[in-house]
Amino acid sequence: MNERDLLAAEAQDDALLNTPLTEPAPQLAVEPAMAVAEPELSEAAPEEPIKVSAKGVDFFYGAFQALKSVSIDIPRNRITALIGPSGCGKTTFLRCINRMNDLIDGAFLKGALLIDGQNIYNKDVDVVHLRKRVGMVFQRPNPFPMSIFDNMAYGPRLHGIKKRADLEILIEKCLKRAFLWDEVKDKLNEPGTNLSGGQQQRLCIARVLTVEPEVILMDEPCSALDPVATSKIEDLMMELRNDYTVIIVTHNMQQAQRASDYTGFFLMGELVEFQDTSNLFVVPKKKETEDYISGRFG
Ligand SMILES: Nc1ncnc2c1ncn2[C@@H]1O[C@H](COP(=O)(O)OP(=O)(O)OP(=O)(O)O)[C@@H](O)[C@H]1O
Ligand SMILES: [Mg+2]
After folding, report:
1. How many CB atoms within 10 Å of residue 252?
2. Of the CATH numbers 3.40.50.300, 3.40.30.10, 3.40.50.150, 3.40.50.2000, which one belongs to the domain with range 3-293?
3. Are the C-beta atoms of 81 and 264 separated by less than 8 Å?
4. Which atom of ligand 1 is least distant from the CA of 88?
5. CA of 61 to the centre of ligand 1 (A)
6. Consecutive H or E run containing 206
7. N or C: which end of the chain has fewer CB within 10 A?
8. Domain ranges within the chain, ordered by starting residue
9. What's this model's pTM, rounded to 2 decimal places?
């Protein structure tokens, strides 16, 4: 890996691992109105404890509005899939939840985004702590150019766990949780990049688990994987939902149906429909949803 690649990987990994950025991140401009925004009725309000709640979220890249009045209540310890055609704002919405869009010049958010009822865009929110609570897995597996062990130890070390024995216990626990331990236990000192694509993605998920997040965001985590590796990630998601709130963006309708409890359909920056996955794919409420899931556009 050359120096430029390394820097690029580190920039992304900084965010992934919820570490402070080298340069202070530009603060996302938040309209003063959001603090007093009237809660709007959400598109769907499942009768379950809610972990993440968006209330009338508008998001702008400069003059371009990428999200339009998105209101959604995402239940705790469930898997929520976000679907919709390319460019409809799925990634933008996901990145609002751990404030990764803060890194983009000229971007700003209106409305309110709550985790456990607390607005994460309030001035007193510690963004580094927020990114520890809200982990992220990307489309392309991105292990650091270091050993499997050091990949796994990176986050915990930054958060103050230094003793080898403590790290070993934590790393074994998280690799087991990510169904990867048996495949890597004898080669923890080998580079993470030597693993197969599917193993690398499970390593990235295991690495997120080491900092004990509450919410895990996954942006098309299987799009670069074959069906067998994809199925392993889906099994892993099902296992994780007992303890985490998982929000996954996917272009794969079968994946959304197989591996999620709730599904939200985005179209041109709007959340058109959000409901039980089983209902959305069988009896969608909106014609746009029906057209999309039946392959009539997108
Ligand atoms: N950094 C940016 N600056 C300006 N516009 C952006 C930026 N990122 C995304 N956009 C625009 O915002 C809109 C939503 O983009 P986003 O990446 O959220 O879509 P998406 O639903 O994730 O699409 P895909 O399925 O292709 O990943 C698009 O029109 C895109 O061009
Ligand atoms: Mg996207």
Report:
1. 16
2. 3.40.50.300
3. yes
4. 21
5. 9
6. helix 197-209
7. N
8. 3-293
9. 0.87
